Request: fold
Amino acid sequence: MNKRYTYFFLFLFLVGVFYFKSYIINNTLFLFNGAKAYAQKYYHIIYDNITLHFDQAKQIKILRHQNQEYADYIANIAPMLTQYRNLKNFQMLNTPHMIFARTISYANLPDISSIYIDYYDANFTIPQGLVYNNQAAGIVIKSIKNFALAYLNNNPKTSYTVFIGKSKIPGVVFGGRNMVVKYIPKYHAISQGDLVVTSGLDNIFYEGVKVGVVKKVIQKDLYQEAIIKPFYNYLHPDYFYVTRIRK
Reply:
């Protein structure tokens, strides 16, 4: 009995399938195509987002590389810009006894009173003057290979002869934290504010390079001394002229 019902319902099912075949096929295709279109839609959305992500990551990498290149360029160009900016304040000369020189580095950090400059003269036997905008900046001591060692005015080993005031009172200036003119004859009257210039008598500088002004006068047993306020700012040793005095 059960088999008869089973065959009967199977027969009805086959008849139904055959009768509604077109409807079933059409609806099945509709559902399949809908699911396919839906899947393709979200596939493209996901693909576009993934592509956008990788494109953005690639672009970010490119931009980071470019930013690093710009940063490196700025880091390299900044010191040059600073030097050129300082050079604007430097008075260029064209005289045979003045040789242009630039600072290479400090010679003995943390001491900032001695520097190396890109200057060489194998023939000098006495110090040569270091001049910045007609201001005495220090002295060149010796040549080392293709550069030279120089002492600035704040170095205790710096010394050269000077004149004080309009009467050209002679003395010898010594460098250091406080520049002092020593060996000034007591019978000469010097006053605060008197101009101090190089004398040129020691063949280190030519005559008339500005050194500073008298700030204080000190009386000694045999001589008098003058504390001076120097013109040259030793904190910015960038460019100089070296004097080549030939007698």
User: Anything to note?
Assistant: The chain is about 35% helix and 35% strand. The chain has two domains: 1-88, 95-247. Helices lie at 2-19, 21-88. The CA atoms of residues 63 and 69 lie 10 Å apart.
